[in-house]
Write a structure and sequence with these properties.
The chain has 93 residues and is mainly alpha-helical. The chain has 3 helices and no strands. The longest helix has 25 residues.
C-alpha cells in the first residue's frame, strides 16, 4: 500500500467515523425549546463540531492503524478474496 492509498483509506475511515459520531449527544432545537425562525425543530442547537472532529480523528487514526497494519503485514491479500480464481498465478504484490 502506497502513500496515496494510505491517505485515501484514512479519509474514508475518518468520514465513516465522523458520520457515526455526529448524532451522538445531539440536542435538537426542539428539545432545547429555542427554535430559530426558518430552521427545523430537528436542527442541532449546539452541534459541537470541533469536539466531534477531535473525537473522530482519534478514533479514525486508531482504526486506520489497525487496517493499515493488517494490509502492510500481508495477513490479508487480494488473492484471499479471489474466489473465482480470476487472478491466477500471474498476479503479484
Amino acid at each position: 500500500m502506497g502513500i496515496t492509498s494510505s491517505l485515501v483509506l484514512l479519509a474514508v475511515v475518518w468520514f465513516m467515523v465522523f458520520f457515526v459520531v455526529l448524532p451522538l449527544r445531539l440536542t435538537t432545537q426542539g428539545e432545547a425549546g429555542d427554535v430559530v425562525p426558518g430552521t427545523h425543530k430537528s436542527a442541532p442547537a449546539d452541534p459541537q463540531l470541533k469536539r466531534k472532529a477531535r473525537i473522530t480523528t482519534v478514533w479514525a487514526l486508531l482504526i486506520w492503524a489497525v487496517l493499515a497494519g493488517v494490509i502492510w503485514s500481508g495477513l490479508i491479500t487480494v488473492q484471499d478474496y479471489d474466489w473465482a480464481d480470476r487472478l491466477g498465478d500471474t498476479w503479484q504484490r
